[in-house]
Amino acid sequence: MKNDELGDGTRAVRAGLPEPVKYEPTLPGPVFAAHFHLPGEPTGPYTYGRDENPTWTHLERAIGELEAPGEEGVETLVFASGMAAISAVLFSQLKAGDAVVLPADGYQALPLLHEQLRAYGVEVRTAPTGGDAQLSVLDGAGLLWLETPSNPGLDVCDIRRLVREAHAAGALVAVDNTLATPLGQRPLALGADFSVASDTKGMTGHGDILLGHVSCRDPRRAAEVRRWRKIVGAIPGPMEAWLAHRSLATLQLRIDRQCSTALALARTLAARPDVTGLRYPGLPDDPSHAVAARQMRRFGPVVSFELADRERAERFLEGLRLVDDATSFGGVRSTAERRGRWGGDAVAEGFIRFSVGAEDPEDLIADVLRALDEAGSAG
Asked: Nearest to residue 329, comparing CAs of 79, 129, 13, 82?
């Protein structure tokens, strides 16, 4: 069967594996090397550890197969973190005098990039994700940055429409696909120039690796991102890359379990009078559902909602027994946090971002309901 005809689980299990060699491991171990034997002219694929590594190569091929199944010419580059991947696209594609459009409701660290971009003479414009509002500030921009679903508010924008309008205006489009993963949506297939993600989250899924990646069709743009990685040295360690590749084998199993449980949890929370502001793109009555259903194949593991105030939210989190009070999302162990504790997100004090893990759904939902009841009675 051709790669683009395989199911998601089959592809995830086999992605990036080398051709079988008798007595060799099916997934070669990590290559720890700062330099390689290099007689004569340096024309081979591996010269120095900051430029390339065989362990990266296997992982990059694997992610590329998930981002664009069966498609030739897509290049993927792995990075030491999601922020390293995001920064590589922005700083390799923008120069003084350019303008960039970023989501006003995106990842909390984006304002740090605003400051640095402005220091380099780049005009930064922002608008919310919902309602494709970024179109209103697109005129004359060189790059449009989308984050959909947005973190933590879970708004969704129409990638196809925004790509069409941006390209017509001469702008590139990058999509932060962290929350969805390539099994949830494929930005390159929707026309984006770059698909970017923090693989710290759902892609690796165990909360023990910092990693990011950029996938791109245009070889010139990919070379620019690669050059930036080399200049700043934002490279992953070989052990992290190997662990990430190993983790991809269970991606479909993890994501399907998380998404089905997230929908069940969202439906349960919708019936609670003490829960307001509930968002999950998979709910038919969610404001983003219609757009999400047109471009997403899975709706992700994250549910967001509000409790009455900070104190009730804190009691709820403290009362959970099967859920860790921790930041990040996409892991096999459920996590939840009161996002307002960080500052920077435009959320209420009682806003909860809940990342559904791989626990039995009945156990997890029972734990949530008990903690909600106890948080309410204690008040």
From this structure: 82
